[in-house]
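Risk register update: the risk of archive-format incompatibility is retired. Evidence:
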Amino acid sequence: RWLTGDLESLGTDERVRPAPPPVIAGSHDPLLDWALLESNCGLALMGGGSLSGLKKFVAGEVLACAMHVLDSKTGQYNVQALFDAYDSKPPGDLVLVEWASRGQGLILAPGNPKKISGFADLAEKKASIVVRQPDAGSRVLFEHLINEAGFDAWDLNINDAPAKNETELGLAIKGRKADAGLGLAAVARQYGLDFIPLCQERFDILIRRRDYFEAPFQKLITLTRLDGFSMHAHEMGGYDISGRGTVHFNG
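Archived output:
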């Protein structure tokens, strides 16, 4: 870095960047959480939401970003958020790789005691709702779905304290701190909660092309090709991993 710190004399504007820490920031995903430990790849998962992780990635603070950000205009995931983060000019060395398709829906208390079948019931019955923090992809999806249903946040009884990750959302409903929340089918199954499926979403990992081929991330990718990974995804429920590894953006 010292030798190449001033490359202007060599006729280029490139700068040598310090290596980011071995961290995947962004959205929380139970399957990814398990895979990072199972693969022994040395990568850590830092939560905070898709958009928060994207900001950290753009700033060079993390190795990769896990994200599931819906573009309400096109119905597509993640690519538009990537372009927005770089003012429509993402660097040419980025790749957006599919991790899984995940089932999202309303998570409800066991037995669905309030007989909730959709957003209309949430509004009519004044059911308490736990939502994710504003930077989370699930919060973006929640706001899109209630708008589609003809509601806005003021029509609903939303708890003041947001859930910081999928697990926290599930536990809030299991502990009767809320009647409902938008979350993953896998979380509902894990905690024995009722679930009303609403949509499938694409969950991607954003990473620089060179880092993709380095040993830590390759260990993680290698795990996804094993039968044990497929079995675990099936056991968790709500995952479709048939598209894993598909590149949805290649700068």
